[in-house]
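seq as requested:
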Amino acid sequence: MTTRHEDRGLRSRLRNVPGVRAASSYRREWLVKDLLAGVVLTTLLVPQGMAYAELAGLPAITGLYTTILCLLAYAVFGPSRILVLGPDSSLGPMIAATVLPLVAAGGDPARAVALGSMLAIMVAAIMILASVAKLGFIADLISKPTMIGYMNGLALTILIGQLPKLLGFKVEADSLIGEAVGFVRGLAAGEAVPAAAAVGCGGIALILLLQRFLPKVPAVLVMVVLAIAVTTALDLGEHGVGLVGALPEGFPPFTLPGIRLSDVGPLLGGAVGIALVSLADTISNASAFAARTGQEVRGNQEMAGVGAANLAAGLFQGFPVSTSGSRTAVAERAGARSQLTGVVGALLIALMLVLAPGLFRNLPQPALAAVVITASLSLADIPGAVRLWRQRRADFLLCVAAFLGVALLGVLTGIAVAVALSVLNVFRRVWWPYHTLLGRVEGLEGYHDLRSYPRAGQLPGLVIYRFDAPLIFANAKTFRDEVARLAAADPKPSWIVVAAEPMTDVDTTAADVLEDLDEALNADGVHLVFAELKDPVRRKIERYGLTRTIDPGHFFPTVEVAVDTFRHRTGAQWAPHPPPELPEPPSGEQ
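struct tokens:
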């Protein structure tokens, strides 16, 4: 009896594993499409995996290890049918910025790999804990304008950092400006290798042309194959062109990365930033592709799936991963129907490492730089920044600030700047919310903004004021000052009706300010009236004891009822006279 009960419990838990659930509903007609899509996807996974590993400051082989393990883990624990995970161009600079400062002066590759693996494990822990705590909303901490600025800065950072490699020389610098100066000096000193420059620049041109005119052709694969062929035929390795060389043979062993205690703090800081960017990428990509396939986005399950992928990579000499919109799009166009596509890609890469590790021996380093540079161009969103300039200058300034944070302070500090700017922008909008006066417009129901309808009707002795934010400690004094200014107008109003529908909260600080304000207005013969105040907020006001000063009869269900009551008591008639001076809109809202 107990055994059957335990078996049922085990089967129930297994059915909750996304990969098991997907396998149980797999359709036979998907098999051929998934197999073919897996082959097509592999042609992109191999060169990108190697290129993004080097972008992260790690050996190229670790990119392949990472790709294999993350694809297999996500196939089991990831909820999306077709999202493709792997090394990512947006994470590469963040990994390098975290790992490389901790590597010894000699640049020990084994220590770099251990640090990268531990970083992946830390990212996994953060993602899995966030999933358990249902913190998927954290992805919203980066607003669209700051994300555009961050990605533009990241694209420029990647581009400048890869230019020396593209032309066949190296630059030692730890900042964007330092790398740019070193690149210019290297060019001036004649350090560029003509053969390397020809391979790198030709690779970029070929990828861009194929993506533009033959989008169904695997541009990266074609470029890589041609680069290997040209390098082999012309023996470019003897002409100063750096080559990848033979990859280690076989599958990576299970490895618990060994690090120093002093490494934990810097790694944890980098892991938080990487987890945040990875989460934002994952949620946005999952939403985009779920909309096409009719799937539901499960944010917390996605975090768990990406966390499992990072954990698997970290335990097998890999580094942090994220979802990839470009690789997922390739899989989708190739006909992928399930995560079997990723499994096929992982198995093919593993077979290549076992059976043909020398396949990419003659792949030139400038070709990998070309892969990274073309990927960085897809990160940039210049039209998005221009659109912000045209539509909302305040958001454009946020975009520029995030861009400068990355460009001048580095990618890790840049993500912190982006998050801080997003949070501060929310606070700014609450601190200085939009507020205006309302009037009656002939032919339109309700009461409308006098900025939009400056000739709207007014009632003598009545002002309708709308404050578009919860009333809290940060903006209570702004509200008080504006209401006091309206009360001091000439002629003096007898009622100030607050159209309070946007007020979703009143905290204790604001309650004290309201009490003092109401007493001051009453002493001056002006009544503070509230209309459309939400019931939960009204109950808070009563709990604060504000009805001792604010007359309970001065709360109305709608603005219309408040206005009709005022007219009935005073006999006032609508008149299209000039309205009182409008309050200044907050900065950036014009």
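The chain has 22 helices and eight strands.
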